[in-house]
Amino acid sequence: MVSFRPTSAETLEDQRLYTQARMVEVDCLDCLARVRVKKNSHHHTSIQWDAEALGQCAEFARQAQQPGGRAVPEGCPRLRDSIERAVRDGRISIGAEDGY
């Protein structure tokens, strides 16, 4: 449930910039799940998953079969490698621009 829905043009633009600016599509080199990624620093990576990508991720499917299911904070190491490769290839820049 949404507790706050922005209505002013400035707030809507801030929301758009925060959730969409500089997002780059990255395909996992293993299962080909496609996510949207941005890196604000070497240690901070934002990843947006959609239902299709979640359904394709072989690592998440494997983790879900474990007793207790997949731990929410656990990521996919194969996708992490794909993102690092995209950074090395220059497809993803590191560092926030204009605060985003």
Characterise the protein shown here:
The chain is α+β, with helices and mostly antiparallel strands and about 100 residues long. The chain has a domain at about 25-90. About 35% of the residues lie in helices and about 15% in strands. It is built from four helices and three strands, in the order H-E-E-E-H-H-H. The chain has a three-stranded antiparallel beta sheet, covered by helices on one side. The two termini are about 25 Å apart.
Which percent range fits the helix content?
A: 25-40%
Order of strands, main sheet, comes to 1-2-3
DSSP helix count? Answer: 4
Rounded to the nearest angstrom, the radius of gyration is: 15 Å
The count of strands amounts to 3
Biggest β-sheet: count, sense, barrel?
Answer: 3 strands, antiparallel
Structural class: alpha+beta
The average pLDDT score comes to: 86
Low-confidence segments? none
Order of helices and strands: HEEEHHH
Please give the alpha-carbon distance between the first and last residues: 25 Å
3D shape: globular
Percentage of residues in strands? 5-15%
